[in-house]
Every structure is written in C-alpha cells, then in structure tokens.
Specification:
Blueprint lengths: L1 H34 L1 E6 L2 E6 L5 E3 L2 H9 L6 E2 L10 H7 L3 E2 L8 H6 L4 E5 L7 H7 L2 E4 L6 H14 L3 H19 L10 E6 L4 E4 L4 H8 L12 E4 L1 H7 L3 E6 L5 H5 L3 H4 L2 H4 L3 E5 H6 L3 H16 L2
Parallel strand pairs: 3-4, 3-6, 4-5, 6-7, 8-11, 11-12
Antiparallel strand pairs: 1-2, 8-9, 9-10
C-alpha cells in the first residue's frame, strides 16, 4: 500500500512539475512576442513594429476585413462616419470601435486621440498624409483600393505580420481557399455569360472593370466581367452599358434612389439582355465594393450562387 501511495505521489509531483514547466514556457513565448521587433515589408516600404499591437486604427474598411479574418480587434476605423459601411461579419470580429471619419480626408486629430500603436492605411488613398501618420504610430500600407482579389490575399499576409499573427495566416488562407473552391464547384464549367458589376448611385452607373477587385474575383470563380478599361472603376452612360450589353448585372447599392430610376423606362435599358432575362440583381455595396477581403469575398461568392445557380 505504501508503495502504491509513493507511486501516486511521485506521479502527481511529476504532473505538477510538467504543468508548471509548460506554463512557464508559454509565458516565455508570450513575453518574447511582446518584446519581438519585426520588420514588416509593405507597399510603403518597411516598418519596425515591436511586440503585439493592441490599439490598431484602420483607415480603409478593406483592411478591417483583413483584421477580422485574423480575429484581431480595432480601436478605430475610418468608416466615412457611416457604420453601415462596415458589414456585420466584420463588426462582430473587430469589436466596438471609434469612427475616425472619412477614408478620403483623414482626421489626424481623431486618429492621434486614440493613441494607436499601429495604423493600417491605403497606400494611394491616404498617400498625402502618410508622413503625418508615421509621426503618430508605426504605419503599414497596402494598395487596397486599386488592388484586385489576389492583392487582397497578399494584404492579409502583410497585416498578419504587422499584428504578430504570421504563424496563423497560412491556416486562415487555406480555409478561405477551401470555401471559395466549394462555391466555384457549383458553377458550371461551360458558363459563358458575361457579368457586369457596378455601383449605382443617384449620380451615375459606376462599372467595375475586369481587373478591379470584384472583376478579378469573378475571374477567380471562372466568370467573365466584360468591361476592359484602364481604370478599375468607370462611370458609364446608358449608351455604353447598352454597347457592352451584359448577360447578367450585379448592381451594388447603399441607397434606394439611384440612376436606374431615371433609366428604367429608357428603351436602351429595357433592351439589355440582363434586363430582358430578369438577370439584374441588387446587392450590398458595403459587402461587394467596400470590404474587399476574405470575409466579403466569401459573401460575394454566396450571393452569386444563390442568385444565379440555385433553383
């Protein structure tokens, strides 16, 4: 009996020792991460970041999509003072945040007031104030606004490095790619229809070219955006839309009153293949045009399957 008791005691001591050693090792890893200095290569050059940022300000909603995919919080987001521009799937991940105003005219005072330890910005959209932003906190930039779908995947890797999640990003991208593949498999291999995506507002019909974010994502799915243009985003007249004459249209809206109200009785509009075949679909502009990331692209793919291929 004494022998058995001794064995149990020894085993218990060993287990406690191993647990203690494991906790100590974990604390050492956490401590090392807090002190680690990383050089992050990005669109604007290189930035040194020490430890794990805890107060991140995001100046482009597409970069908030990347943060959400990485399960990282943000203290501030430039949402044009319109929280509806940030889709729920992103909001639920990044948590409660303070709006820092416009993506196009950065409110430096608001950004600074949040005392960020990392700023994520768009290389082109915020180019004029990058120098000022760097004085506030380490700043990492990506070319999101002009980038396509593949560039958005690269952006996630850059941001993962900036926030100390490089060890997680490959798994996240793998899961994303598997999700997209499942949607892609539901699209017929012989699909020939042309699909024109466009933001429609009161002021116009703003079509997205084949190299825009949405256009390049359609291509990734094996679909065809018929608009070939130098610029990613193009304001088209009704005559130009009629000339393109797409088989399908996805119109991205965030307001009820758009130029389509003016066009709907025009013979050119009525004569479009997409209109005659009842293949004009109204979709969320925040999801399709603004978010431009892993989370939103999965939402776009789901919308396409549910509208075009579900009977």
């Amino acid at each position: 009996m004494k022998k058995i008791t001794s064995v149990i005691v020894a085993a218990t001591v060993m287990a406690v020792s191993l647990l203690g050693a494991g906790c100590a090792a974990e604390k050492k890893v956490d401590s090392a991460k807090k002190e680690e200095v990383r050089v992050v290569k990005h669109a604007g050059g290189e930035t040194e970041i020490k430890g794990i940022p805890k107060r991140i300000v995001v100046l482009e909603i597409a970069l908030a999509d990347a943060l959400a995919a990485l399960d990282v919080k943000a203290v501030g987001i430039a949402d044009d003072s319109d929280p509806k521009l940030v889709i729920d799937e992103i909001k639920n991940k990044v948590g409660d945040y303070t709006s820092v105003g416009s993506r196009y005219e950065v409110n430096l005072e608001k950004v600074s007031s949040l005392k960020p330890d990392l700023i994520l910005a768009d290389q082109n959209k915020q180019n004029a104030v990058l120098g000022e932003l760097k004085k506030i906190a380490p700043t990492v930039t990506v070319d999101s606004f002009n980038g396509g779908y593949k560039e958005s995947l690269d952006a996630v890797k850059i941001i993962a490095n900036a926030v100390g999640k490089s060890d997680k990003v490959e798994g996240i991208l793998k899961n994303h790619n598997e999700s997209i593949l499942k949607y892609k498999e539901q699209i017929p291999k012989d699909e020939k229809r042309t699909i024109l995506p466009a933001v429609v507002t009161k002021s116009g019909f703003h079509a997205h070219a084949d190299h825009s974010y949405v256009g390049s994502f359609l291509n990734e799915l094996g679909l065809k955006d018929p608009l070939k243009a130098k610029d990613a985003y193009n304001k088209l007249s009704i005559e130009k839309v009629a000339e393109i004459n797409p088989d399908v249209m996805y119109l991205m809206v965030s307001e009820e009153d758009t130029i389509i109200k003016e066009w709907k009785d025009n013979p050119l509009w009525k004569g479009l293949k997409a209109v005659k075949d009842n293949k004009v679909f109204y979709v969320s502009r925040p999801k399709w045009a603004v978010s431009r990331g892993l989370i939103s692209s999965e939402g776009i793919a789901k919308d396409i399957i549910e509208t075009l291929y579900k009977k």
